[in-house]
Every structure is written in structure tokens, then in C-alpha cells.
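lol ok so funny story. i was supposed to be doing the assay writeup but got distracted and ended up predicting the structure for this chain instead. priorities right. anyway since i did it might as well share w the group, maybe its usefull for someone
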Amino acid sequence: MKNLYINLNGEFFLADSPVLHASNRAFRYGDSVFESIRIINGEPVFVNEHFERLKNSMHILGFEASAQFTYRHLAEQIAALIERNKIKEGGRIRLTVFRNDGGYYTPDTNQKSYLIECTPLSENVYTLNQTGYHIDLYTKIKKHQNVYASLKTGNALMYVMAAKYKKEAKLDECVILNQNDRICEAISSNIFLYKSGSLYTPALSEGCLDGIMRLKIIELAKQLNIRIIEEAFTPTNLLQADEVFLTNAVSGLRWVISYKQKRYFNTFSKKMIEELNKQVAENVSSETKF
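and the output, tada:
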């Protein structure tokens, strides 16, 4: 991927340019939030939902509002970077907003900056994985239920350690538990269970990420008159499910074939990703309207 560019506060740089200082607070303290946005047919999808979540995250972390930092401006900068990187079909955006340099744990300022990264993907639309995922529990670190649990922040050490364990255990994904040993989420995804015509997912109160694709799958299930249950689940529920799939904004759905001795089907997962792509095709042209 040669000659890709990034966008720092409205200025373009080559992607390998050293644009951040050693004092950067996202680097030092994880003092940042980010959004991962899918590109389809050269257009970012679900942009309004991503920006609403970003707005909420910045408010919770106490980032200072500014007249220059508008969502219309961000949308224009994202579109300009997609064009500069010549992405005509599938791709991904990472939009990171971080508190400006200064201070140690106590920040000198609450003003913020943004960095946009944009890379192509080999698949234009959401595509279900051909080989199902093998998953298991990650139990060494539990995720705590608090006001920050639903945010996508730069403080990702728990996910890094879970991913390290996943690699060592030769798994495709790990399920993260909350402090009550109930199912929370996966490393980079929300988790859904399908059983007897109903769809189940942990409630946000269980500490899971407030995922954009989680939101879209819930909306889609309601449109299809599929019963959706958001509540607390234990690992035992994984053994009782007919299907299990994972969701995030970039990959869409990833179906699971096994958890311990349990084996799953993917009929419902196939149906949902087909419906998801139909919805995206119908709505992608209106995503950047404000």
C-alpha cells in the first residue's frame, strides 16, 4: 500500500510521516477515542451513527467543544482522504480524536486534535467468513461495568492481552467476561446468540461496547420481526445457542463454528449479512447528509 496519506487536523501527510510528538497524550496515556468506519463503493457508511457516538464519547471524556470541529468538517475531511487515497470500493477509516499535548495525568488543556487514517480492503461489501471462527473465553482480565465501558478509547491493554492469548491458544477470537463472570463482548466485536427464532445479545449495562454494527443488527432484527433480547448471559448460554456470530462496523458479521465442544450452524448469519448489504445499498448515498 504505497503512497497512502493520513489527515491530521485537515492537513495531508504521507502515512509513514512522523506527525505525532513523544508527548502525545494518546500515546502516553491512551487519552483518546476513535471510530472505525467501513467504506463501501468508495463511501463511508453509517457515518451519522459513528459521529453521534463520537460526540457522546468526547463529552464523557471532557474534550472541549470548538466551532472549527464540526461533523460536517469531519465528513468533508474523510471524503477528501478517501479521494486522495484513491479508494473506489471497499476500505476502512480510523478516526482518532485525542486531547492535545501537555501535562502528565492531569492535562494542561482539554482542546483536541484529530487524525484520520484510510486504507483499502479487498472486499467491497460485507462478506461472511467462509470458515467459521473457533472461540473460547479469556478469563485473566475481566471488564468492569462503568460509564467508560461502552466507549472506544485508546486505552486497549485488556484487548491486547486477550488478543495475545488468542494467538497463543490458536483461536480465532476470545469472549471477554465482565466482573460478574457474564458474557460481555469479544476482542474487537459485540456478540450475538441465536436460538429458536430469537436473537440475544448482552445489554449495554453488562459493560459491552456500544457498537455501531450491534445497533444496526438490532434495528435490522426488529425490521424483520425477529425477537431481540438484551440482557445478561453466562458462558452456559453459549452452549445452548443454535448460532453465534460476532459484529463490528468494519467486518460486519463473523460466524462462529465452535465454542469448546459445541458446534454451530450459520443459516441465520447468512440471512442477516444479506439483509445488511441490502440496507447499506439502499442508504449509502444519504449517509453524509447533516
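The chain has two domains: 5-120, 133-282. The chain has a mean pLDDT of 95.
back to the writeup now i swear
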